[in-house]
């Protein structure tokens, strides 16, 4: 049952990430073609709840998706099982979330 739930969580986060990746790429292309500097980009994102929600959702989805993927790799290639396997998954997920959340906070509110 756990495997099915993890499988579904990874697929749902992939569905979430697809439009977020496209949105992120569109924004980056717009910024580069518009000749925006980093300071100008930060000026537009600072204090924006919309960008906080956009990139916060992105970070949450990537954290879950990546942790589950690394869990599968650790099991298939590393032969990890049980508590160690779950620890790898949770450690990776929390690490990805912490790094991403710090970046989102820096871009939108710091």
UniProtKB/TrEMBL annotation:
It is found in: Membrane. Its cofactor is heme. Keywords: Heme, Iron, Membrane, Metal-binding, Transmembrane, Transmembrane helix. One of its GO terms (molecular function) is metal ion binding. The keyword Iron applies. Pfam families: Sdh_cyt (PF01127). SUPFAM superfamilies: Fumarate reductase respiratory complex transmembrane subunits. One of its GO terms (cellular component) is membrane. The chain crosses the membrane at residues 12-32, 52-74, 83-105. Its main location: membrane. Membrane-anchoring subunit of succinate dehydrogenase (SDH). This is Succinate dehydrogenase. It comes from Sulfitobacter aestuariivivens. The lineage of its organism: Bacteria, Pseudomonadati, Pseudomonadota, Alphaproteobacteria, Rhodobacterales.
């Amino acid at each position: 049952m756990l495997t099915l739930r993890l499988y579904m969580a990874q697929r749902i986060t992939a569905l979430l990430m697809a439009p977020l990746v496209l949105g992120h790429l569109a924004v980056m292309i717009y910024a580069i073609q518009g000749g925006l500097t980093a300071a100008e980009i930060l000026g537009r994102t600072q204090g924006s709840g919309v960008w906080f929600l956009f990139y916060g959702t992105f970070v949450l989805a990537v954290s879950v998706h990546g942790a589950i993927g690394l869990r599968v790799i650790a099991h298939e290639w590393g032969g990890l099982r049980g508590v160690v396997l779950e620890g790898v998954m949770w450690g990776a997920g929390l690490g990805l979330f912490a790094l991403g959340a710090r970046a989102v906070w820096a871009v939108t509110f710091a």
